[in-house]
Amino acid sequence: MHNFEDELTCPICYSIFEDPRVLPCSHTFCRNCLENVLQASGNFYIWRPLRIPLKCPSCRSIIEIASTGIESLPVNFALKAIIEKYQQEDHPDIVTCPEHYRQPLNVYCLLDKKLVCGHCLTIGQHHGHPIDDLESAYLKEKDTPQKLLLQLTDTHWTDVTRLIEKLEEQKLHSERMVQGDKEIVLQYFKELSDTLEQKKNFFLTALCDVGNLISQEYTPQIERMKEIRAQQLELMTLTTSLQKEPPLKFLEKVDDVRRRVQILKQRPLPEVQPVEIYPRVSQVLKEEWCRTEIGQIKEVLIPEMKISSRRMPLSWPDKDEKVEFLKILNIVTVTLISVTLMLVLFFNQHIITFLNEVTSVCFSKVSLFVYQSFSNNLYDLKDRLCHTLYLLKEFMWKIISR
């Protein structure tokens, strides 16, 4: 079938014959191909002779055609019929050009090293390129695979294999490093999380202890006051029922009720004072923990939280002693306020800041422990002074308001 296809191909354009015309020497060519040959031979003049000479592209014999030109040559109807039938049939074993419909790839382009069809050479992108027939091109390239195999099996590919092994080894090493770093990160943040969880539990435990202290401070008083309230309600009921008693029963009970009421009213009542908690957690977190580096979290101490429930006695000074007492109290108050301000301004802002900066760089863990203990004690002292000032202020207010 491949040879049959060659028979249907024009030897000039290497395409399937289009309008095949037969020369007197019996060679057939496309009508357009013969027109181009005739035009290239320079045999067209303003006036035309009776006969036009034409050299056959195949046998090179000089033939004469009528003055009407190529149109006077007879059509090869037999070949044309065969071509039409060939084009109507499917030929799966024949490779055709992807750019030109049903044109077989029957020429080898030497410039681009690929198979092309006749249209590619005449009107396509391979126009003017050097070509070769399939058989000659095959014979020239027949030994190429063996040469390529030699190139594909030389020492260069040994180096490629070694390079692949080295790259895979380096990749494995890098992946192990990354995996090791992942484990370090997980371990580091697990320890940090455990430390933070431990510190959080310490804080919550300290707050629970403070809550227990508050409960111990208030619960007995609340229970005692509830007891007094219950006795009051009981006496109110008893007093109301006395009004309904006959005179004899009334006289028997009234003195006992009076005595119980007097005893109940004479029971001392506790003075209601707010309980101060020191140090406050918000203050510790803001002033201490915010300045702590991550690596020092383990060494940060949880301060011992306390409550203050100091109550002033209800005995007040006489009016004659008031003026003298107020003078002394004012002097003490001014002195305490001055000391407190000095401690807050100088110790808390300057010395603690300085110690914190020096400690974070130079001090050892023992020095850090001493510093933190000093800082917590300073906070405790400041809270106690503030609480004392608060009590003095309340006391003065009560004196003045009397």
TrEMBL record:
E3 ubiquitin ligase involved in different processes such as development and immune response. Serves as a negative regulator for innate immune signaling pathways by suppressing RLR-induced activation of IRF3/7 and NF-kappa-B via interaction with adapter ECSIT. Regulates autophagy through modulating both the transcription and the ubiquitination of BECN1. On the one hand, regulates the transcription of BECN1 through negatively modulating the NF-kappa-B pathway. GO terms for biological process: host-mediated suppression of symbiont invasion; negative regulation of canonical NF-kappaB signal transduction. It comes from Loxodonta africana (African elephant). Belongs to the TRIM/RBCC family. InterPro entries: Znf-RING_euk, Znf_B-box, Znf_RING, Znf_RING/FYVE/PHD, Znf_RING_CS. Gene3D superfamilies: Classic Zinc Finger, Zinc/RING finger domain, C3HC4 (zinc finger). The chain crosses the membrane at residues 328-347. GO terms for cellular component: endoplasmic reticulum membrane. It is a single-pass membrane protein. GO terms for molecular function: ubiquitin protein ligase activity; zinc ion binding. It comes from the Eukaryota. It holds the Pfam family zf-B_box. Signal peptide: none annotated. Interacts with ECSIT. Keywords: Coiled coil, Endoplasmic reticulum, Membrane, Metal-binding, Transmembrane, Transmembrane helix, Zinc, Zinc-finger. It is found in: Endoplasmic reticulum membrane. Residues 92-134 form the B box-type domain. Residues 10-60 form the RING-type domain. This is Tripartite motif-containing protein 59.
